[in-house]
Amino acid sequence: MKISDADYQFSVTATPDLEDDTADIHYVPAPCQVACPIGTDAPSYIAYIWEGKNEEALEAITATNPFSAICGRVCDAPCEPACRRADSDGAIAIRNLKRYVLDSLGPGFALPPVAVTREQTVGIVGAGPAGLTAAHDLAEAGYEVHVYEATDKLGGMMFWGIPRFRLPEEAVQQDIDRMTAHCPGIKIHTNTALGDQVSLDQLKQQHAAVLLSIGAFVGKPMGIPGESEPFVKDGVGFLYHVNAGARPTLPETVLVIGGGDVAMDACRVAKRLPGVKHVKVIYRRDYEAMPARREELQGAIDEGIEIVYNTQPVEVIDGKALRCVRTEMGEPDEDGRRRPINIAGSEHEIECGLVIAAVGQKAECDELAQSGLMDWDRVKTRLEGMVTEDAKVFAAGDGAFGGSTIVEAMYQGHRAAYYMKAYLEGNENPLPYRTPYRTRHVPICNDPAWEINPRVHQKFHGLGEIPIEFPEIESTYTADEAKFEAARCFRCDAETGSADYTVTSREAIFAMSRINPQDAEIESSILQGRLENRDNPFGIEHVATLDDLVFLPANLSRLVIDPYREDCKTATELGAINSLKLEIPFVVAGMDLAPDEIREAYATAIVAHGAAYIGAKPIGDDASWIQIAETEADTAADAVVFRGGQAIEASKVERARDSQPVGLLVDNHNLAQAIPFALEQEIDFLVLDAGDGLPGIEAELAGAPDISILHHAVSQLRALNREEDIDLVYFGGLRTGTDSAKILALGATAVIIGVAAALSLGADISSGSPLYDADLDAEERAERSYNLLQAFNAEAAMMARCTGKTNVHNLEPEDLRAITLTVSHAAGVPMAGSLNQH
Amino acid sequence: MVTIDLSHTSITDANQQIRDWARDGQDVEIINPDARHNIGVGLVDPITVRIKGSAGYFCGGLSDSAHYEIEHNAGWAVGDNIYKGSVVVGGNAGAIAGVAIRGAEIVVRGNMGSRAGQVMKAGTLCCGGNAAFMAGYMMYGGRIIILGDAAEKVGQDMSAGEIFVGGNIKSLGNDTMIVDMEAHERDEIMAFLERYKLNYRGDFTKVVNAGKKLRYANAEPRSRPQPFFVSSKSSNYWNPKVQEDIWIKGEVGRYRIRGYGASKPVPHLNDIAFAKDVSGVAARPEELKDINLKTTVGGRFGAKPLSLSMPVMIAPMSFGALSRSVKIALARASRLSGISENTGEGGMLDEQRAEADQLIFQCLSGRLGWNVKDMQRADAIEIYISQGAKPGLGGQLMAKKVTPELAAIRGIPVGIDLRSPSRHPDVLGADDLVIKLQEFREATFHKVPIGIKMGAGRVNDDIKIAYKDGFDFVELDGLQGSTGAASTEVLENVGIPTLSGVQEAIDGLAEIDAGDDMDLVMMGGIKDGVDVVKMLALGADCTSVGTSAIIAGGCIACMQCHVGTCPVGIATQDPEHEARYDIDRQSMNMHRYFESLRWQIAAITKALGYDDVHKVNRGDLVALTPEAADITGLPFRPEHRETRRPLTGLELLDRQAG
User: At B556, is the secondary structure helix, strand, or coil?
Assistant: First the structure.
């Protein structure tokens, strides 16, 4: 039986007090995560593996899973069939990636110890995955926990039920050691069986609460004539025996009855034991219906085990054979599985020397039966609350809910611990438990081959050279293989790159396409979600930026100019009276203090493109230079710019030579005075510094520029009817050629790029000022600086052509619309679609 | 030989008569043609049509297997898009003679106008005299023979094919070169000339594509998208996405390309709410069966309108951008849900036609896959002017996706980075468009609706032109509309939001008292029934969904559609990747998505108090943000925003599992 939240109707309106990120609108738990009963944050650990951050991956793995090393090898891994890539070219190998992390770091990984902080103690019967998980959670919560284990080993079925070639003892020990070191409050009592060494009454007296996680260690009989020892053995008993160290010699032919994981383990164990030549698995349903994990089934087949489907044992002929009938698949049962129907007259005998029946397990405990806590072969409990008939006694694991998987048992352990804590704290009516889901917000890996990488299969060794020694059947990945595999993750949990099709929207569409459309209740609940309105993305803190402006494309009312093919002019004359002639409307800034190699690269690019440099000193002999003059103009400068405030104060600007174009560097503070002054002085152009920082670009790095300076300048000139008498050059926050085109459309003749140029050469801007390193060589720097100017210029021209212009300088405010009111105001551009525009 | 006198027969009647005679195996003579447009358009039977005089635009256009002889001159676009068959012009031909032909023989005995053979795919265009500028402009294949002189820019931006010029070449076009001619080519040309009794003994200069611009110079490094930023927040202005963008441009020296639409937040339907509380609807489907959702599109001039079970269409998406399997799945889902499918740019697939009950055939500038036979089996025609994702740019398909199969259906060379033209060769203004529209009507016998697809820009002006030009419907696409590949700059920055688009359209039509006979189909970011009802309340007649349908059918929204190695087999032509797509399962997923849309639309309509979705109106809406209020003129009611916690991702998944 498998129980998890997927089956359990939990309340969606309340989240219990657990670490959980599902309220984050930029996060949806991935299908693998939801399929995992304990909500393992697989997308995060996979992404960490790709990044090479194995320690972080380990944290994500172990956060809800005290048996990570074990699960990395033998988890049933319901995550993998749920993986969205399973439908494409194979699920991500989530389980083996976990093993890779644990194998590389696990043995040395310790969690800090948690002190006992509470007076009450808890008793737990049975040291399997359910009991120990509960012990772990309760110990983390500060309780002292006494674990009573009937055998001499911890781990329950993990130790006794799984053969060593799948799960070596060291892996079990690794997890147990880590847990006991982390939780010193867990006190272990081995060889202490309930009913023999300790009674329930004693436990109830000694502890404030008791958890019964006794496991299901008794094999169910097949219920057919002739079924008796020693010719018929039960599967779990057989595995227990072998895991205790026995290596019995068996008859030549062994039959294993059943189609579950115990059957798979039993048949593979038998195959390795001396004397055995043939192992056949007899299963009454077909391949599709077989519950065993596909990997285990394939492993068995690869090891030479024969699987006989649609065959039902009907009688044991002691010492000789098993009589069976053939079956065919009938109609689905009430549990949804198709019932096998015996085919009349198909009786046949399969000769064998031994039959191992692996047809299910049950719990047995006389002590509990006498106390009335058993319900036939299970401890009587309910999933709601996990409590037994006795309010002080709780139950979990296979002994309570029937044979299941490790991860399901861990889920039950977490769940039981949750309700026990509530009980211990006197909370009689806690919020229903549900699996918490977390994300570590790891960026999506940027591996170019993520779409095409096929699943990496770990190396399979099968029986190995000396089968009886039970060598491990598989090895895990190398670091390269792990990274390759990790790259394949779709990252269903992560926010998308689209503000329109967000992860939440995408998942809503997925939900709409996977429900029964006739189910009004589900439809209604999805509709509720869709009726929610998002927060205003342009709320009170919104800053007007160029992102909020769009170009109006040519359609029917204008002819578009083909951006792929047709020309668009970019030649630029900067200066109303005396002018500087450029081939493109781009000026580079911010490299006065840059290393020589950086300056050289941009000097070459500026020359190649016919652009210019603006700064206190020239960038190179041949590159056009617009001097920002601190005191006086340099005759070598192709144009000179004086600081507006100083120039106005001095009431004059002086060229170094006749016809040297001259400009004023102004900001929002002195713009109003500068304009009349500039017109009076017949200044050729204004440099509008929206970043308040030229010649440096540190101010530009501080954040979004105040683009309103351009609108203010144009409005003032228009009010004076002097727009044609002076040119405008804009500086501040330009990230693309499109940003630049918007500025040209708003009235600038040329634009200055600073940070963008620095970034193109790999500058690190995290410190608030551009820092270059030596990662690029001279050729790469030259190419990159050339490319950036080329791309920006082409992008600007692309915008012009889309609007139907053949010259970037023909772009005009009318080609733009605003999509936010803030930018509409700052740039003086009407809102798109608004009647207020007319 | 039958004679039709155009002095007292309308073109439509004449074309009908010609078709009837053609079926009877009779040839036809046209007298008094008087340079009328669209003579002989839409013929698909072998026939010879002799035009005793001159013909106007599109003579012989959109035909297959017919032969036309024009005694005197022909207007522009003679022989438009002919498959097999021929046109012989006795005199001169206007511009774009032989445009988009796919195998025809077009012979102009006199001179021919500019851009002759533009976007032709196969066949021969032959000119006895001189050719004006840009002969062979953007041709994809076939042969142009010019016996006289060729003016400027011969073969401008041609991708393939050959141009043979007997006289002087004034100048060569971009990316062309002169190569030596092979002997057999000359023999073939001479045989051709002899057949058409053109006497020429001189030499030829052969012009072909030089192969320098067919592919982007250096490949953009592949990447996966970073989460979108609300980049206007001052603190993250130079965010990692911006930094990566600049870094990559430094590497490739040009704009970047990706799939999907605008990634930045823009004002949208989600900033509008219903005035009435419609939450808590849990109607069973049988309670909703009396709510009318039926929608017809395109009945303005008496053509048989599309009849949709709800105001939803599937948006145009090409075979090319998408795999064949996805186009089949979409077509099937459209049939199962009673809505329409649309071919997009890449031509019509037989399986798609068979699966879809109602199929719109789209005509784009490159005329890729465009042909009269598929027009005549379409349920509606749509001429594409632009799209919301990339208005101004033609379609774009990176070489990885231009497989032999795909190239064959489109009529283009294999393995080029296909960049479709931005403009139609034969539509340079609103007046041309009227004649083009008429040509389509002639080719489809005035029986199917003809619409126009536009990306939202100067909608207020454009919608008036569309109305006055006489379209049956407009499909208007906002900035958020998606695509398989486009420049990110255009994706983010060209065009206006869908919300602005619908408002301008409604306002523009009201300004000319257009009434409501031209149907307005809105698209671009429609995700659910909530969006559909809001769009109708704002004034649209119908909506279409593209991206959402694709997501319903398994798209994971990685936005790397352009790369061609789609991990789920959707945006790919690679057989290995396409094999990952399960048509049966995904078509059912899409079908269920459409049915959920239907439930939502009906439930909201009912909750608003109507029995017909077409009765919802602006009074049912309020604006929640200043932007939405300003754009739409709806009352600004920020207090109307529900304060309830949004449904979390987990809950959504729970629904999915449920």
Answer: coil
Residues B129 and B17 in one domain: yes
Find, among B252, B264, B238, B221, the residue nearest to B494 by Cα.
Answer: B264
Q: How far is B335 from chain A (nearest CA, A)?
A: 16
pLDDT, residue A539, reads 86
Does residue B565 lie within any of the structural domains? yes
Closest CB to A832: pick one of B603, B631, B649.
Answer: B631
Tokens 């110890």 belong to A113
pLDDT tens for A103-133 read 999 888 888 999 999 999 999 999 999 999 9
Q: Taking CB atoms and an 8 Å limit, are A512 and B592 in contact across chains?
A: yes
Angstroms from B622 CA to nearest CA on chain A: 12
Picking from B150, B177, B209, the residue at the C-terminal end of a domain is B209
**Do B646 and A450 count as a contact with CB atoms less than 8 A apart?**
no
Q: Are B412 and B418 in contact (CB under 8 A)?
A: yes
* A656 three-state secondary structure: coil
SS3 sequence, A231-284?
Answer: CEEEHHHHHHHHHCCCCCCCCCEEEEECCCHHHHHHHHHHHHCCCCCEEEEECC
Mutate to test the interface with B, among A4, A34, A498, A738 (most CBs of B within 10 A): A498
- Domain boundaries for CATH 3.50.50.60 within chain A: 218-362
Which among A102, A115, A91 has a CA at the least distance from the CA of A186? Answer: A115
Distance CA B292, CA B298 (A): 19
Q: What is the ipTM of this complex?
A: 0.95
Query: What residue in B sits closest to A753 (Cα-Cα)?
Result: B246
CATH annotation of A31-110+436-486? 1.10.1060
Contacts of A565 in chain B (CB under 8 A): 138, 156-157, 174, 419, 421
CATH number at residue B313: 3.20.20.70
Place of tokens 């020892």: A229
Contact A556 B461 (CB under 8 A): yes
Residue contact B528–A508, C-beta within 8 A: yes
Residues of B in contact with A8 (CB under 8 A): none
Residue B104, amino acid: A
> Which pLDDT does position A656 carry in this prediction?
93
Provide the 3-class DSSP secondary structure of residue A340: strand
Domain range for B408: 290-616
Q: What is the mean pLDDT of chain B?
A: 93
Chain A residue nearest residue B287, CA to CA: A520
Work out the minimum CA distance from A639 to partner chain B, whole angstroms.
28
Minimal Cα–Cα distance from A580 to chain B, Å? Answer: 26
pLDDT band at B214 (very low <50, low <70, confident <90, very high): confident
In a domain, B219, yes or no: no
3-state secondary structure of B423: coil
- pLDDT tens digits for A782-826? 999 999 999 999 999 999 999 999 999 999 999 999 999 999 999
Cβ-defined contact of A523 to B596 (cutoff 8 Å): yes
Q: Tell me, what amino acid is at B498?
A: T
Asked, for residue B267, whether it belongs to a domain, the answer is no
Q: Which residues of B touch A88 (CB under 8 A)?
A: 567-569, 580
Q: Same structural domain for residues B496 and B612?
A: yes
In this structure, of A765-769, B149-153, B218-222, the range with the lowest mean pLDDT score is B218-222
Asked, for residue B309, whether it belongs to a domain, the answer is yes
Best CATH choice for the domain A572-797 from the list 3.50.50.60, 3.40.50.2000, 3.20.20.70, 3.60.15.10: 3.20.20.70
CA–CA gap between residue A485 and residue A507 (Å, rounded): 24
CATH code 3.30.70.100 for A218-362: no
- Residue B565 gets which letter from DSSP? B
- Asked whether residue B150 falls in the same domain as residue B295, the answer is no
Phi-psi group of A509: left, alpha or beta (phi > 0 → left; psi -120 to 50 → alpha; rest → beta): alpha
Structural domain count of chain B: 2
